[in-house]
Design brief:
Layout: H1 22-35, H2 41-48, H3 56-71, E1 86-93, E2 113-120, E3 123-131, H4 139-166, E4 177-181, H5 186-194, H6 206-209, H7 213-217, E5 222-226, H8 242-253
Parallel strand pairs: 1-4, 4-5
Antiparallel strand pairs: 1-2, 2-3
Helix pairs in contact: 1-2, 4-5
């Protein structure tokens, strides 16, 4: 169960014994995660939050990541291009790190974690696992913010593809499909993205996060629901059990 434990900031816990340079190792793991090992993104970012004052549990978590990498040293990212499609899987976990005991010492636990992976022809191009910069007031808001953040990357890629097409490069322009998790109230996030309607509980989102709505309305981007078990972006937002972790790793990494 240690692999599914969420790390917290506990001033009463014993300090890390400096058996290795914590900050330097985290830097190397972040480089690796951004290069060829997206499946460790959530775990690495959990540990990276405590670089300024690591504790014993944080050091042990880094060691577990190291043991996992040592056991999969012959693995990497297998790129097997499939039917041409341009997809983005995005998810958010609303205040998943919140802990009643540590909340007073670490108010950042009230923030939600979001993650996404953007792929072309089944091959991952971009991925991210990070805390949102502001506190979402509901699960719907957290997921809509995540959707908006992922769309910023999508819009840039769309412009790049359009430019490549204008330059007569051999590229197949395809409208991306943004997959958003089918959660009890996440249908609200999809509804906000599709329907241009002002709502009392979401009017504060209007200026900052509705920037991509025109792409949805003109059909350039389509938003779809997926079931909880098929949401591969879950691997970037929360600690998963072994079965789900391996399932989503297979979808992203190919093994």
């Amino acid at each position: 169960a240690l692999s599914t434990k969420v790390l917290t900031r506990d001033p009463k816990e014993a300090k890390f014994n400096n058996s290795f340079n914590y900050r330097r190792v985290i830097g190397k793991l972040l480089y690796l995660e951004k290069s060829t090992r997206p499946e460790i993104a959530f775990a690495v970012h959990q540990c990276a939050r405590f670089c300024n004052d690591p504790r014993h549990s944080h050091g042990e978590a880094v060691k577990r990541i190291g043991r996992y990498l040592a056991g999969t040293a012959d693995k990497g990212m297998y790129l097997r291009p499939s039917a041409a499609s341009f997809d983005c899987w995005v998810d958010a976990s609303h205040a998943s790190d919140w802990n009643r005991i540590s909340a007073a010492d670490d108010p950042a636990t009230a923030k939600s974690r979001m993650g996404y992976v953007i792929s072309f022809a089944g091959c991952p191009l971009l991925w991210a696992s990070k805390m949102q910069t502001e506190i979402a007031l509901s699960s719907t808001e957290a997921k809509y913010i995540a959707l908006s953040q992922a769309m910023r990357e999508i819009i840039t890629l769309l412009a790049l593809m359009k430019e490549a097409e204008e330059m007569k490069l051999p590229i197949i322009p395809l409208p991306p499909q943004v997959h958003c998790k089918l959660f009890e109230d996440n249908s609200g996030a999809i509804e906000i993205a599709k329907v241009p309607k002002m709502r009392p509980r979401t009017k504060h989102l209007n200026v900052k996060y509705h920037h991509f709505r025109s792409f949805v309305l003109d059909g350039t981007v389509s938003v779809h629901q997926v079931s909880t078990t098929e949401q591969i972006a879950d691997i970037f937002t929360k600690a998963l059990n072994e079965e789900l972790f391996e399932k989503h790793r297979l979808a992203i990494m190919g093994w």
